[in-house]
């Protein structure tokens, strides 16, 4: 896993989303620059589709309620059939390696929300690996944000 450097994270709140409201809908679009290592976190009521490039290596996340408790869902675009199985497997490997950094960046970037609602640190994180290849298309529980805090 890469090291998280808070000074390399830029956060933007849009669509009427503030540091602490609303909780639902609240969607996260995390992108990055391979050249500078800079991370860009957009927090809004919708995903920031305009920030996503053709590589589709963004991390999308959102809060969802399940009865009386909340879960954080993450969507990773491994492929839509445009890659060979070996290229998709490599993308899957990279997503898995970098996901702890991404979750740390989301948690840090929206820390005011977590400070206001401390129970969010115990919410399950459900990761959705989106792929046309059945061996890569998976949904996994990755613990809680508490396990990714630095």
Secondary structure layout:
Layout: E1 9-13, E2 27-32, E3 39-44, E4 59-66, E5 69-77, H1 85-109, H2 111-116, E6 124-130, E7 138-144
Parallel strand pairs: 1-3, 5-6
Antiparallel strand pairs: 2-3, 2-4, 4-5, 6-7
| Count of alpha and pi helical runs | 2
How many beta strands in the DSSP annotation? 7
Structural class: alpha/beta
What about the largest sheet? 7 strands, mixed
Radius of gyration: 15 Å
Q: Report the portion of residues in β strands.
A: 25-35%
- Helix fraction, binned, reads 10-25%
Strand order in space, largest sheet: 1-3-2-4-5-6-7
Oligomeric composition of the shown chains: single chain
Secondary-structure element sequence? EEEEEHHEE
Overview of the structural elements:
- The chain has 150 residues and is an alpha/beta fold.
- It is 21% helix and 32% strand.
- The chain is built from 2 helices and 7 strands, in the order βββββααββ.
- Strands 1-3-2-4-5-6-7 form a 7-stranded mixed β-sheet, with helices on one face.
- The protein is globular.
């Amino acid at each position: 896993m890469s090291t998280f450097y808070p000074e390399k994270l830029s956060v933007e709140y849009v669509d009427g989303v503030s540091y602490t409201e609303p909780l639902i809908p609240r969607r996260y679009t995390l992108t990055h620059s391979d050249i500078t290592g800079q991370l860009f976190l957009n927090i809004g009521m919708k995903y920031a589709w305009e920030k996503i490039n053709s590589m589709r290596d963004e991390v999308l996340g959102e809060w969802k309620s399940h009865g009386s408790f909340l879960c954080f869902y993450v969507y990773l675009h491994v492929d839509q059939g445009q890659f060979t199985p070996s290229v998709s497997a490599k993308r899957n490997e990279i997503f898995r390696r970098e996901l702890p950094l991404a979750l740390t960046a989301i948690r840090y970037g929206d820390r005011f929300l977590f400070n206001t609602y401390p129970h969010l640190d115990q919410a399950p994180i459900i990761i959705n690996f989106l792929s046309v290849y059945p061996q890569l298309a998976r949904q996994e529980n990755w613990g809680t944000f508490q396990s990714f805090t630095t």
